[in-house]
Write a structure and sequence with these properties.
Layout lengths: L2 H20 L2 H18 L9 H23 L4 H6 L10 H7 L2 H12 L4 H8 L3 H23 L2 E2 L5 E2 L9
Antiparallel strand pairs: 1-2
Helix pairs in contact: 1-2, 1-3, 2-3, 6-7, 6-8, 7-8
Length: 173
Amino acid sequence: METTAIWESYNSEIYFFTLKKVKDTDITNEVIQNSFLKIHQSIGTLKDPNKIKAWVFQIVRNEIANHFNERSKTDLSPKVELFSSSNGYNDLCCLDRFINSLPEQYKEVVELVYLKGKTQIEAAELIGISLANVKARIRRAKLILINNFNTCCKFKLNAEGKLVGDSNCSRCT
């Protein structure tokens, strides 16, 4: 599998996984860039192509850890306070609140797949439901999240079906 195909398959999952961990869009983009550079350079070392997603997410987790390790050595900026702040949506524009407000059956699947990096098959096995049911729950959860972002934060969907624009959320500003 080529780096382009990996990007096309996993970029949105990696983006939200990373964003949830680092809580900053600029740092998220930096971590993803570093991760894909390592993925591109190391693609030849992948032993089992069936485990590509796990391999990719391990590289991303390592890059996230590297980011926090480097930052703890260099400075303790005011952004550290944002992580312990009571409103977890500071840099995410309501993402935490929206995920937490999902019906439990959708929230569980979203957390397993997008935040914990499990495959949909692994999530199905952990929850004890079929893969088709996991996919349906993810699809429904995405529709709810998109509607929440459109309504609350005034994001719009582009031609590719991705949220775009700047937050215009009275809760986040």
